[in-house]
C-alpha cells in the first residue's frame, strides 16, 4: 500500500533499492541486528531442551530476520523522508528541516 501523505523530512532517495537501504545501515543498526539475533538464539537454546541445537538455529534465524526487517523499514523511511534523517541529509549535502507539521502519530 503506497504512502499517501507527503514526506515530513527531506527526501534523500525517492525510490531506494534494497542495496541503497542496506548501505544506509549504520553501526547502531548492525549492532541492533547482531544483538537481537544473539539474544533470540540464546533464548532458543534455553527453551529448546530436547532439541537444543535446531531450536537455537531456528530462533537465531528468526531473530535475525525480524531485526533486519525492522531496521530495513526504518532506514527506508529515512531515505524516503518519513523518519528523521539529519545524518543522511548532512551526508547528501541537503539542509535538514521539517517540511510539514506531524499528522496523527508520527515520529
UniProtKB/TrEMBL annotation:
<feature type="domain" description="NADH-ubiquinone oxidoreductase 21kDa subunit N-terminal">
    <location>
        <begin position="7"/>
        <end position="82"/>
    </location>
</feature>
<keyword id="KW-1133">Transmembrane helix</keyword>
<keyword id="KW-0812">Transmembrane</keyword>
<dbReference type="InterPro" id="IPR019721">
    <property type="entry name" value="NADH-UbQ_OxRdtase_su21_N"/>
</dbReference>
<dbReference type="InterPro" id="IPR053229">
    <property type="entry name" value="NADH-Q_oxidrdct_subunit"/>
</dbReference>
<protein>
    <recommendedName>
        <fullName>NADH-ubiquinone oxidoreductase 21kDa subunit N-terminal domain-containing protein</fullName>
    </recommendedName>
</protein>
<feature type="transmembrane region" description="Helical">
    <location>
        <begin position="30"/>
        <end position="48"/>
    </location>
</feature>
<feature type="transmembrane region" description="Helical">
    <location>
        <begin position="55"/>
        <end position="74"/>
    </location>
</feature>
<keyword id="KW-0472">Membrane</keyword>
<dbReference type="Pfam" id="PF10785">
    <property type="entry name" value="NADH-u_ox-rdase"/>
</dbReference>
Amino acid at each position: 500500500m503506497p504512502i499517501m501523505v507527503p514526506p515530513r523530512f527531506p527526501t534523500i532517495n525517492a525510490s531506494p533499492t534494497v542495496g541503497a537501504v542496506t548501505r544506509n545501515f549504520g553501526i547502531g543498526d548492525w549492532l541492533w541486528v547482531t544483538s537481537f539475533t544473539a539474544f533470540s538464539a540464546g533464548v532458543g537454546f534455553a527453551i529448546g531442551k530436547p532439541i537444543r541445537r535446531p531450536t537455537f538455529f531456528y530462533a537465531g534465524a528468526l531473530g535475525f530476520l525480524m531485526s533486519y526487517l525492522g531496521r530495513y523499514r526504518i532506514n527506508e523511511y529515512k531515505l524516503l523522508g518519513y523518519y528523521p534523517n539529519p545524518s543522511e541529509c548532512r551526508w547528501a549535502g541537503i539542509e535538514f528541516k521539517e517540511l510539514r507539521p506531524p499528522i496523527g502519530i508520527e515520529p
